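Methods: example folding runs. The two proteins below were folded one after another, and each record is reproduced exactly as written to the output file, sequence line first and structure-token line second.
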Amino acid sequence: MPGWESLGGLQHVVEQLKEMVILPLLYPELFSHMRISPPRGILFHGEPGTGKTLAARALAGACARASPKPVAFFARKGADCLGKFSGEAERTLRLLFEEAAAQAPAIIFLDELDGLVPARGQAGSGGSDQIYASVVSTMLALMDGVADRGAVVVIGATNRPEAIDAALRRPGRFDREVYFGLPSTADRLEILSVHTCRWEPPPSIQLLQAVAAATQGFAGADLQALCAGAVMAAWATAAHRRRKRGKPR
């Protein structure tokens, strides 16, 4: 599993995750000695494609390398937890938290959290709102019990933090938040360097600087797609040249 080296332009996020997640998971005795409770819930939010899911996977990889004991990583999308039948989502969440506690230290990553626990009263009308209200209540109870489950950290990710039920953003639940904004020019240069470091021959720093300067407003996912498109275009050009050389004059 990739570690911090897979992240470009997110050094501020890396430093926060080291403090909020790795330190409590690997050295819980420091917090117990000081009689303070480490963060148990962290909310990633920001623009689409800015690296929220990638950061969670890099965190899991970094924990696996730093810890003498394996750190379990559970990743779910909000929609994956919802089922066809009433009560299925609540059961899925309870089983997920129980399994994480059994394999602690563990990280639970819930992507697209707003689709799982939307603000009550805004999810729809009638039965739909009642179903989501039940899921939110279950999630609140599970988050309140995280401290009693051992070394388990819950990370949620969303592009719309305002759509999540407000009760989940109170202290003791998702009480720490990490914002993922669009990358600066320097950040874009770092992201481009990550995605092109294995190219043969590697692009010049002057070219990468020019691309970084010309891609204002691009998210990390956009830059990754740009690099992938460049590779495909290069392959197509090379194939065309080979075919052209092979034709009789």
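Second run, written to the same file directly after the first:
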Amino acid sequence: MTNYRNNPVLENPAMLSVIEAALREDIGVGDITSNSIIPEDLHGEGTFLAKANGVLSGLDVAAAVFQILDERIEIEASIEDGMPVVTGTKIARLHGPYRSILTGERLALNFMQRMSGIASMAAAFVKLTEGLDVRIMDTRKTAPGLRAFDKLAVTHGRGVNHRYGLDDMVLIKDNHIAVAGGLTEAVNRAAEQVPAGSQIKIEVETDTLEQVHEALSCERVDVIMLDNFELTAMREA
């Protein structure tokens, strides 16, 4: 069993701000349904059950929703994020005021369902590449505001995070190349701004084998992306 007295999500400013905003968005001035039907002092239990097979993700986030909403709610988890589940798996038990449990359940489930879907998809691709010298990586194509959640979910599916944002890697894409006047020129300009030996990597997106050869001839390219290459072209590259 895992309790959530020290939930790491509550120490993550990016996640915390999103959860707080989501609670404000959902509750508004108050949950008029629960508040009008459920006595304020009525306490009880609720259980999260898996409705499909997959990989669990977002349980820590769901727990944070309830902890922020009402500190009287206690959460005991039977399993942890990153673990496989099957239909009917008991994920966690909640105990506390029914009003607060019912107010927070939809938002908690929204986070957990989305993240578990991402983790399960990542895990499926990881499984397909077992035995190969391959890592499944994500991108920045995340839902605005939810990047921290989406990328965490990828790791729960045993995927690997690529760059988190625009400030932790140089990634020269086709539009950069077009504006700079060529791949080599774009790389040279980036290299002037990124000191040799820096932890910041320079990655180049290539669309053709000719661009791959050009990227290989550059001194400061750390990673070459093969963008939408067919398998035969990837093997040749």
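Comment on the second run: The first strand starts at residue 2 and ends at 3.
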